[in-house]
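Case study B.
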Amino acid sequence: MTGFVHQALRHASDGQFRDTAAAFVRDGLHAGDTVVVVSACEITLLAESLGSRFRPVECFDAHDWYDHPSRTLRRYHPYRTRQEPNRRVRVVGEPVGEGRTDFETREWMRYESLVNVAFAGSAHWFLCPYGTRVLPETVARSVTRTHPELVHEPGTAADCTDPAEFGAECDELAPARLPAAAAGIPFTRGRAAVVRRALTAYARRLGLPEQRTYDLLTTVHETVVNAVRHGGGHGVVRLPSDRDHVICEVSDSGAHTVPPHPPLPGHLPPEPVAVSGHGMWLVRQLSDLVTDRLDPSGSVVRLYFRRPGRGHPAAGSVNS
Amino acid sequence: MAVTPPLKTVGQMRQGDHLLLGYDTDEERETVLVAFLLDGLASGQRGLLLPPAGIPAGVALSFLEAHGCRVDEELAAGRLRVDPHLAGPEGLWDLDEVIRRETRSAVGDGFLGLRVCTEVLRAQAGKELKTLHDSELLLGPVFSSLPVLGICQYDRRIFDETELGPLAGLHHGRVGADAVWRDDVLAITRTFAPPGLALAGEVDDTNVTAVARALHTETARARARAADGARIHLDLHELRFIDVGALRLLAFTALGLYAAGGTLELSGVAPHVQRVMRVTGWDRVPGLHIAPEGQEGEGP
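Model:
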């Protein structure tokens, strides 16, 4: 019995968390499973309770691990290939709840939902603790819709929603108004180099570090190539950056045919030998947050890059 | 193994040019000479080879045969000539006079000029290459005044870079093989040691097909060189940008080579390109080797 399990543990006290998680870890170690604990502050609670038997557990600080949803999803993937037959990967994964903007919070809710697709068929067993004392009400409620199982809540039925549907709901909440941007950079087929030049100059004006500049160039280029390929051949890049983020918005006028885009584009890692799908995957991995509205009558993809020095996402800049 | 970039490619040469070719392999030498001599035939100029040893003319020029040139016919018609002058012990002493005379003779025979290729053995270069220096120095006025252009060949396995540097200064610079492709943002050139291609500039959807074509041709060459396991080296030191579509092509090319026991080796892969390859999983494609150099820190 090593099928995929994704459980939420809503707890009101440290003691409740400690007892459940410790049992979970202990059972895993006993069964020879790989055990991973990602926690913001509760690792010490667990360690106290488990003592020396805690040693084989792989521990990560949640503030590093849960930095950007797409990158976090990728971090859990390597455990798939390391897995021995009939052994599980047990994860106590406690996303950082506090200090997120509404936008970030929504993307983390989407992340929990995507876990159900990303690891379906794997031997991963996620136990996701949510401390209800500090959690925003919206998140606490969404947990029932993003987790197939709830631990210690016999009275509450999990109401797990299809990730595509849940993602669409997240998209509906999206239209945060962006600052007006200066004139955009128009692009057409074969003219992506013009966009790259303009972005390089823009990144230099902002004083972005070199690696971030390449991230910007690469992700916008791939988005533009997608827009040319699927969005009618031309469009415009606007740069409506705000206080916290450098924002690149790529819009096209639409191909006016049924879009061939797959469900959850770029959320799941493509096979290296796949003929497509690497572009959007890369876009999500190299930027900090992405919103996409893919529509045959015109798509809009926004890429967000947290400005240097504007706070760690987990450290919290409460601004929406 | 820093290679000074050639000032000119062989296809850009024109009358009056006196350029130095430092070559690492016979394939490199022949690639440049084939272009140089065939361009001469196409331009109505006589081609003259001054080899360092007394080899029969047909043998000395046999490398042209594979490129559709009927060497015997061209020799018989006087469009190509081989002169063993430099094979003699005193060959360098009057080289300027020989080239002056040969140029006039070519024009007298109805040609539009002369293309000359010289090479000397190290033994004839004199103590500390003095004889060679003096000879090259005297060639300057010949090339500047007559309808002649020439390539002086130097085997880099025999002459090292500290010797070639000063010698290059006695020429109008260096010559190298023609670019395989050149557009506004990308140049693809052949490399010979190790054999492969160098990409300089930017690769995206506009020119990825040129890269595919070059890789395809290079694969055929690599297979001809080594029946078991074609190895292609890609020098990416001067590559500023490569997009996902082009990297996918490299991954697929590597897989194809791997299936036949070969490899695609990348050197000079910038940290940001390595990062993209890691995120897409292309750094682990069988047959694709990334030469380690520099350190990279992936941001959190």
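Residues 5-172 of chain A form a domain with the Rossmann fold fold (CATH 3.40.50.300). The remaining cases will be described in the next quarterly update.
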